[in-house]
Amino acid sequence: MTRLRVLQPDHLRGDDELLLEKMSDAGVDHAVIVQPINYKFDHRYVSSVIRARPDKFVGMALANTSEGPERAAAELSQLVKTEGFRGVRLNPKLLPSDETLSGPTALSVASAAADLDIPVAVFVQPQHFQDVRVLLTQALHTKVRPLSKDRRG
Questions:
Q1: What's CA 153's distance to the chain center, in Å?
Q2: Which terminus, N or C, of the chain has the lesser number of Cβ atoms within 10 Å?
């Protein structure tokens, strides 16, 4: 397994071993690892961790909405089917500059998520509420489901 190692004080570590330690200390059996925004659409590290420890971790991908609807849906499908992600996060700041959460790219991601039977988490602020209402109306077949270690993508 490839691991990201950053030389920094132990209290600032952010690797999977430290997460497992802290989970054990707190009596937590399972965790959802959400793709960090600072890695954008490079899911390799999170993929390697969830594949190595499916008994402990499930992953939530970050939708790559920067290249339009078809590419966003195709990449999400690949992440779920081959990498084992079980959810997707939509961030309106990463949409094409001429789109909102009620536009074709976000709808494509929501529809793909529904077809893949995975939940969608939307990163929103109050100015996005109306767009989220429109998105939910357009993508009524999208299911909200809990992330579970027993679900298979």
A1: 13
A2: N
Q: Which residues contact 36 (CB under 8 A, 6 or more apart)?
A: 46
From 60, 71, 62, select the one nearest 108 (Cα to Cα): 71
Q: What is the pTM of this model?
A: 0.79
Q: Which residues contact 125 (CB under 8 A, 6 or more apart)?
A: none
Calpha distance 87→121 (Å, rounded): 8
Q: For all residues of the chain together, what is the average pLDDT?
A: 84
CB-CB contact of 90 with 106 (8 Å): yes
CB within 8 A of 148, min separation 6: which ones? Answer: 58, 86
What's the DSSP call for residue 27?
A: T
